[in-house]
Amino acid sequence: MQTLSHPSLALVDGAARDTLTLALRTLELAEQAGAAPTARLQALALVARAYRGLGALSQAESYLQQALRWADCVGGADAGVDLLCELAELAVQRADGCIEDDPVAARLARERARDLCFDAAARASRTADAQWEVHVLLRVSDVLDRSGDRHDAISLQCRALQLLVQYELPMLDNAAAAFDQTLM
Q1: What is the C-alpha separation between 58 and 64, in angstroms, rounded?
Q2: What element of type H or E holds 56?
Q3: For residue 57, which of 18, 98, 26 has the smallest C-alpha distance?
Q4: Model's pTM, two decimal places?
């Protein structure tokens, strides 16, 4: 487990350090208590988000990867998709941070973000909730757009719109019909 002695954390703001301390303590307690896999998954994700909030992106990615492994083990489809989205957003953030210093690393991070986006979109299509899939598609299309992949971003937005039309329009028609019945 990472500690607060990491050099990149020496000059961070107190509230962010407190958040990380609490998240690490939550994870430690979950591990000590032999908590359920979903509790460990949530604790790992909490630690990852705290590290990301501090700008410690490598540590954040490491904890997100661990959480994703737990999600895959417990069959947490929605949690896995959410973690893939977070990993993709983190990859773009890393690319943005190194674009001037290391353009090759930035390109590789953007390619990784792209792969994560398509994995998330594919997994989201296998869930039962069309609204969740729409949410994921729009989220990953934003990541793709930030990565400069506008064509694929637009394709996913169109897919999201098709889902909205497919699932929302019949519900609106039913609501309108029900409203018309009350007027009669």
Answers
A1: 10
A2: none
A3: 98
A4: 0.81
